[in-house]
Amino acid sequence: MLQTAYVVAALSVFVFVMLKLAPGDPAVIRLGKEVTREQIEGERRELGLDRPIYVQYAIWVGNLVRGDLGVAFTNNQPVAPLIVEKFKRTVPLAFAALIVALVVAIPLGIIAGIRPYSWLDNVVTAVSLFGVSAPNFWVGLMLILFFAVRLGWLPTSGYGPPGEGFEFKYLILPAVSLGTSMMGSLTRYMRSGMLDVMTSDYIRTAHAKGLRYRSVVLRHGLKNALLSVVTIITLDIAGLLGGAIVTENVFRYPGMGQMLVAAVQARDYHIVQAVVMLAAVVYVLLNLLADIVYAYLDPRIRYD
Fold it and tell me: What residues have CB less than 8 Å from 147, skipping those under 6 apart?
């Protein structure tokens, strides 16, 4: 818990300083280029950008502790409601991608792990390598081309029909595109974990006791093989938020990723800082959750 607090605090400093060092002036972007120097300086004073950087950081952290994420430079709206609205759209996309990855990766990894170097193992290895190697944006474009343009089964982009809200079919292609890379890495780790476990002494003992093969694989082998996979799952869940930046822009999905790209282009510091800090907190909390899950999966692990 203490390490989590240190990481979040250090990251807040890093994010704040790096944004200030990035080229571009929010005041110029808001006013346009055809303005005088006095107008720019007045806009910087209004935005609070004329103060020393350590004063700006102290004000931002103080507001952050109170739950005030500031006001967006681009539209003068509070950032917190914008983040909540976009986060509620990105979370379903991330979890749908996670489900796609798990449903495909765990069975394929088990099959490859209990049938090593067979033709099934070779096919699974090829599929996993494709998932790891193929960029999200290319996978997304190929899915749009095949399922939306040629077959016409699914929409090409968006969140739902205009004025009608969300529809599930708009989530399918982005979720598959986002989950493909996670599927590839999880399959490889699942296969590796099963290979290690199935050659262990306790597995041979379970076979010698006459237990059914399915019981040996699922009850004794799978649970222990999941130790390494849990780490990858927790890291990849947080990574899905980063991958959503590309996927949401390919599919024009109105989530946090699309908002973050627009905020970076407009140098809207408050939105960028809020999104990055939210992703960082989710990341460290999931790592903490992974430590807790380890102790459940392996009774030998204790945090004394």
Answer: 153, 154, 173
* Chain segment 255-268, per-residue pLDDT in tens: 888 888 888 887 78
253 touches 97 (CB < 8 A):
no
| Cα–Cα dist 78/185, whole Å | 38
Does residue 176 contact residue 146 with C-beta atoms inside 8 Å? no
pLDDT digits (tens, 9 = 90+) for 5-35: 888 888 888 888 888 887 777 777 777 667 7
Phi, psi at 12, each rounded to 5°: -60, -40
DSSP-assigned beta bridge partners for residue 78: 71
Domains of the chain, first to last: 2-65 (no CATH), 79-297 (1.10.3720.10)
